[in-house]
Amino acid sequence: MKAELSLVKLALCGPGDVGKEIAIAQEVVTEWNLQHGETSGFWIKHQHWSTDSHPDLSDRPQGIINRQVIDDSDLIVAIFWSRFGTPTGISSSGTEEEIRRGMKLQRPVMVYFSDLEPIPATADRQQMERLWTFRQELLERGLCSRFASRDQFRRDFSRHLALKLNDFQKAAAPHEKEKAQNIVQTISGDGNFQAGRDLIFKQPPKIKNVIARPAGGVSPSELRQIKAWIEELAEGETGVSRQRAFSKWGAIFLNTFDLDKREELLSEQMVKVEAWFKQQRAIQTRGQKTKAPDVWRKKRIAAIKAAMGNMGLPEEIYYPQLSVRLKMKKSFTSLKDLTKTDLDRVYTMVLRDARGA
């Protein structure tokens, strides 16, 4: 029997300078369909005005795109970098109008802001100012995502898409539960071969082993934090696959704290675990500075950008200030132009500013 699939239409929006990110998002959607589409019961169709709209003279251009693409979508994904877009007659840009229309129609809207370096030399200052104002408005209204590399965007969008599809599955669950309640079944068998009316199970039910939490043991949120720390250390490994790096650091963690399972850790030990993580990250970062300078530089830049985003400081204002405060010979416009020494100095000062903000 063929599985019945529900179609989820996902609209991709963004000014002309995010073409590569749009293509990455389309690849992520295609990969999700291949891996999870049939098993999840959902199939995602990505839509973009360049491929999913057709000629029509009944309205202004953006109005036609709204009707043909946005209004028919179940999920809207918008991406910005250095451009805000072209005015539509109603909004300051087409992407802005698509976001606001999606919100008005109560569609889920996921917005991503690129912090890629360097900003194109052709970037329009007025465009960037309008983008920054809109960015601050959205950050105050809800949760947006920022990325410092296209690899990070691919990873983040893959994870966010999976989480959002979980919401669609939960929304469909009550209907499935209602159907299930009408089924009455009697099970019989010897444990290895079971039959229930016209359904046959050739394998015994799977037994799920649950590790009991010891008194004072770590909470689920603390376990998630430990996993995040191990993942960060694994991301810093070079020359090995991510899975192998994660296994390596997971084993190091267990050996360090003399555990068989993470669940055996006591909550009061989290302070020591955090200190261990910071120490290992510092050692790893120092090693990367010499052995893998590109990885080290990307991490430094990503951390600086994240801190600036949290403080709400635009680079065109903050970079000149940092140049003066650090007594640099000349001002800089891109973090990629800095030497290792200056990038370290900027990193230290930005994080100090972020802690005091």
Could you provide a short overview of the structure?
The chain has 357 residues and is of the alpha/beta class. The chain has helices at residues 19-40, 49-52, 61-70, 94-104, 125-141, 150-180, 220-235, 242-256, 270-291, 293-311, 315-325, 340-356; strands spanning 6-13, 42-47, 75-80, 109-114, 145-147, 187-189, 194-196, 199-201.
What is the percentage of strand-forming residues? 5-15%
Strand order of the largest sheet: 2-1-3-4-5
CATH architecture verdict of the largest domain:
3-Layer(aba) Sandwich
* Structural domains: how many: 3
User: Which class of secondary structure composition applies to the elements?
Assistant: alpha/beta
Let me know the average pLDDT. Answer: 83
The CATH class label of the largest domain is Alpha Beta
Biggest beta-sheet profile? 5 strands, parallel
Give the distance, in angstroms, between the N- and C-terminal Cα atoms. 59 Å
Question: Secondary-structure element order, as H and E?
Answer: EHEHHEHEHEHEEEHHHHHH
Determine the CATH topology of the largest domain: Rossmann fold
Unreliable stretches (pLDDT < 50, length at least 5) are 191-202
The gross shape turns out to be: globular
How does this model look, in words?
- The protein is built from twelve helices and eight strands.
- With 357 residues, the protein is α/β, with parallel strands linked by helices.
- It has three domains: 6-167, Rossmann fold (3-Layer(aba) Sandwich); 214-290, no CATH class; 292-357.
- Helix 1 links the parallel strand 1 (6-13) and strand 2 (42-47).
- Helix 1 runs parallel beside helix 6 (150-180) and helix 7 packs parallel to helix 9 (270-291).
